Amino acid sequence: MNLLILSCGTRDKVVQYFKTAFAKQGRIVCTDCSPYAPALYEADAHYIVPRITAPEYLEVLYEICKKEAITGVLSLIDPELSLIAAHEAQFRALGVQIIGSDYELCERTLNKWELFGWMEAHGYSCAKTYCTMEAFRAALERGEVQFPVFVKPMKGSASIQIARADDMETAAFLFAHGEQMIIQEYMTGQEIGADVYIDLICKKVVSIFTKKKLVMRAGETDKAVSFIDEKLFAFITKFAEESGFAGQIDMDLFEKDGVYYISEVNPRFGGGYPHAYACGADHMALIRNNLMGIENPVQIGGYAVDKVMMKYNEIMLTTVYKEEASGGC
């Protein structure tokens, strides 16, 4: 039972947690296109691979799966989720299970306009979103939305090209100078992060960890405090199961006047997941169980509350050999 983690980057903690969960039962293999991705060197084995856009990329992954007897694969970056989901049959033929959601869901969550449409159609409170300046102006005139707003790419990740606009001139400029942009309501209230695991066998939500965000940095949670709210758990469970997600998802929400609003959903481990793990929400063990054919029981809550997570920088020293430094990206 060996796990392949794609595009591991700087997610050292995630790799460490998986090594603990798989100890004496399997190996952790990591890939990245850069030899300077520190999480590579936490794994039992690592490979420098081409960029995910390279035509040979998938064949390289298939060869790694064969060589390392891989039984499960997951990615830690948004653009790659759809790529591996689209080739689920090829991975399955190699005896490899994709730990994640299907192609349609990966595409829906990557496309903020499509996700907004689905949530609105299914009755979930969410940030008002507009994909044309005409629709945004009309909403302003109706009093449906007001400044400030966020202008962001329709398909984007890692908070790249997201900017706040406080007036029409700024909004129009940002919208015109990006590719496939949307305008989204500026949400106020308490921002919340949720780390959710949907069992790969029974398709039920079996674990949820929630935190109130205190400080953000570069699109990721920098400081947060854990809490429990049964109403929120029920809301997340209904959304995740009705959507059809599988495996790990990371959710951003807002709470305002007792109502929960969904902001974004990413079907992967989020950057703030170490907070969940440190409080007792061990999703690596849930993945290990599923790969062994074991269905996980529903155990929502039960983690440590009022625990504040504060990120800080660490360094790694290693030797990068010439043949590695010349490969990948």
Which key phrases capture this entry?
329 residues; Rossmann fold; Dna Ligase, domain 1; D-amino Acid Aminotransferase, Chain A, domain 1; six-stranded antiparallel β-sheet; five-stranded parallel β-sheet; globular
Give a description of the structure.
- The structure is a single chain.
- Helix 3 packs antiparallel against helix 5 (103-110).
- This protein has a 6-stranded antiparallel sheet with strand order 14-13-10-11-12-15. The chain has a 5-stranded parallel sheet with strand order 3-2-1-4-5, sandwiched between helices.
- The protein has 3 domains: 2-100 and 315-325, Rossmann fold, CATH 3.40.50.20; 128-185, 2-Layer Sandwich (Dna Ligase, domain 1), CATH 3.30.1490.20; 188-310, D-amino Acid Aminotransferase, Chain A, domain 1 (2-Layer Sandwich), CATH 3.30.470.
- The chain has 329 residues and is an alpha/beta fold.
- The protein has helices at 12-21, 57-68, 78-86, 88-93, 103-110, 112-121, 133-142, 168-176, 230-243, 273-279, 283-291, 322-325, and strands at 2-6, 28-32, 45-48, 70-75, 97-98, 129-130, 149-153, 163-165, 181-185, 190-198, 205-217, 220-227, 247-256, 259-266, 308-310.
- The longest helix is centred in the C-terminal third of the chain and has 14 residues, at 230-243.
Number of strands: 15
Uncertain stretches of 5 or more adjacent residues? none
Class of the largest domain, according to the CATH hierarchy?
A: Alpha Beta
CATH architecture descriptor name of the largest domain? 2-Layer Sandwich
CATH homology-level superfamily of the largest domain: ATP-grasp fold, B domain
From the spread of the alpha carbons, the general shape counts as globular
For this structure, the CATH topology of the largest domain is: D-amino Acid Aminotransferase, Chain A, domain 1
Number of helices: 12
How are strands sequenced across the largest beta sheet? 14-13-10-11-12-15
How many domains would you count in the coordinates?
A: 3
Please bin the fraction of helical residues.
Answer: 25-40%
Alpha-beta content class: alpha/beta
The succession of helices and strands, N to C, reads EHEEHEHHEHHEHEEHEEEEHEEHHEH
| Overall pLDDT | 95
Radius of gyration: 20 Å
* Proportion of residues in extended strands: 25-35%
Distance between the termini: 29 Å
Main sheet overview = 6 strands, antiparallel
